[in-house]
Design brief:
Strand order of the largest sheet: 4-3-7-1-2-6-5
Distance between the termini: 50 Å
Number of domains: 2
Shape: globular
Strand content: 35-45%
Helix content: 10-25%
Bound molecules: flavin-adenine dinucleotide
CATH class of the largest domain: Mainly Beta
Largest sheet: 7 strands, antiparallel
């Protein structure tokens, strides 16, 4: 099978932690890391067989050296609540990688401005990292919006560009 086609795979939770209220950060061991592109997503199957459809979650980071993908998700309903209880070593079924990904090449020579809010922020991390590593962009600004002062991923984003923060409650930024 080609290495860049989508496939269903048994992955293993490497680690998981809560990083904000209702927001979880999970690394999983999976060979799909090799083909992952910024902006793609995986579908994660629940063990509750009454929930037939897998839950789409964006790739937050891909570690090709260690064959790991990172996903960051908010508990929205039954499926994501189930995921939040997984511990290291837990086996999960995933399908991926899905979607076309972001056109990282288009950043070449440009002043790049990435913008996202809330649970739209996680895929921006791999995007910012990929653009920075390409070394092609003239500059990278990252505008992120949060509900409050729980600024998950903002420090990591700052490794790849100038981060500008706004919050709904005005506790940070403007
Ligand atoms: C391409 C893509 C990428 C995504 N990436 C991410 C990501 O990186 N991180 C992330 O957190 N999320 C992401 N999502 C969203 C994520 O897929 C959903 O939050 C997840 O599928 C919800 O599944 P669940 O089983 O937890 O919730 P569900 O049980 O499916 O419920 C979802 C929401 O609908 C409400 N709901 C359910 N049933 C009803 C009803 N009968 N009446 C009214 N309301 C109802 C629930 O209360 C809940 O708020 C992405 C979605 C897509 C399409």
């Amino acid at each position: 099978m080609s290495t860049d086609s989508k496939r269903k795979e048994k992955a293993v939770v490497y680690k998981q932690q809560q990083i904000a209220t209702g927001i979880y950060d999970m690394w999983i061991d999976t060979s799909l890391a090799q083909q992952a592109k910024a902006g793609q997503f995986i579908s994660v199957y629940t063990q509750d067989k009454s929930a037939l459809l897998p839950r789409p979650i964006s790739i937050c980071e891909a570690d090709k050296v260690n064959n790991r993908l990172r996903i960051v998700y908010r508990i929205a309903g039954k499926g994501t609540d189930e995921f939040s209880h997984y511990k290291a070593g837990h086996k999960i079924d995933i399908l991926g990688t899905l979607g076309n990904g972001f056109p990282v090449d288009r950043a070449a020579g440009k002043k790049v401005c990435l913008m996202g809010g809330g649970i739209g922020i996680p895929p921006m991390l791999q995007l910012a990292k990929s653009i920075k590593e390409s070394g092609n962009a003239a500059s990278i600004d990252i505008v992120v919006g949060y509900r409050n002062n729980e600024l998950f991923l903002s420090q990591e984003l700052a490794e790849y560009g100038n981060v500008h923060i706004a919050t709904e409650d005005g506790s940070v930024g403007s």
